[in-house]
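User: Could you go from structure to sequence for me? I need the amino acid at each position, not a summary. Structure tokens:
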């Protein structure tokens, strides 16, 4: 049993089987309750925003979804099938890719090398098997195709070192990498936090393109205008619980902040 019963969700949810579903997740750290019976559903082609004040449990929730933490109670389902992630590699292997705020890109490598970071391709034949030579031309070709598929106009040359890119372009590289390998879910942690207005808009457009390609996205953000611009539904965390799940159509930004801070209930 969870420590405190989860709030009743007032907003109708989409129909069908969720791509990713968390049921009654509990995570404690000694006497500190990180998550208290939190449930979440993410559907195909949906942008689900997760908002909450500091200490609300957003990071703990995402870490439980991505294998960084193992929940004490509750369950995770991917396409309706029960899954158990014991480490981030398990979630990545299942098709859940996460872009953290610090990006984790390698500045000295070019765009293509960053897209395949940790998944480098070897050349066919003896060159790859015996001498372990990288298939740089093949990776660059596939990187160009991925960038074009997502309509990222700011990344014309995949051979440019990431250290020469702007903050928005680096974010686009990280998102493109997640989209290339996150066959099920892409999770974005504060993707516009350190960006200016123009570059933030480029990232928001990229999120919308992911939705157009039917890639479901979980967006963690403190920026309410950005959340209300791209989110289909908004999961509100408060004090380790899900306070509500709302939509931009059913609630205003003021309503969302009030629920988040405890000044109002959904």
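Assistant: Here is the amino acid at each position, in order:
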């Amino acid at each position: 049993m969870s420590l405190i019963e989860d709030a009743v969700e007032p907003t109708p949810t989409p129909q069908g089987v969720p791509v990713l579903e968390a049921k009654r997740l509990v995570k404690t750290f000694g006497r500190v309750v990180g998550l208290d019976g939190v449930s979440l559903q993410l559907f195909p082609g949906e942008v689900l925003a997760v908002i909450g004040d500091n200490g609300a449990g957003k990071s703990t929730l995402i870490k439980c979804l991505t294998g960084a933490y193992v929940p004490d109670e509750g369950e995770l389902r991917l396409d309706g099938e029960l899954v158990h992630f014991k480490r981030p590699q398990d979630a990545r292997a299942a098709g859940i890719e996460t872009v953290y705020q610090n990006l984790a890109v390698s500045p000295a490598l070019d765009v293509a090398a960053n897209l395949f970071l940790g998944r480098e391709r070897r050349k066919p034949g003896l060159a790859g098997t015996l001498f372990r030579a990288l298939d740089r031309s093949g990776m660059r070709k596939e990187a160009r195709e991925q960038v074009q598929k997502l309509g990222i106009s700011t990344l014309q040359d995949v051979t440019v070192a990431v250290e020469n890119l702007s903050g928005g372009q680096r974010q686009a590289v990280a998102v493109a990498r997640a989209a290339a390998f996150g066959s099920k879910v892409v999770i974005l942690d504060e993707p516009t936090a350190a960006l200016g207005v123009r570059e933030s808009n480029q990232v928001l457009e990229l999120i919308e393109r992911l939705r157009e390609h039917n890639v479901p996205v979980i967006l963690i953000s403190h920026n309410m205008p950005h959340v209300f611009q791209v989110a289909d539904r908004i999961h509100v965390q408060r004090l380790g619980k899900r306070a509500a799940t709302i939509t931009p159509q059913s609630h205003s930004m003021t309503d969302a902040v009030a629920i988040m801070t405890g000044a109002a209930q959904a």
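One structural detail worth keeping in mind: The chain has two domains: 1-105+184-266, 109-160.
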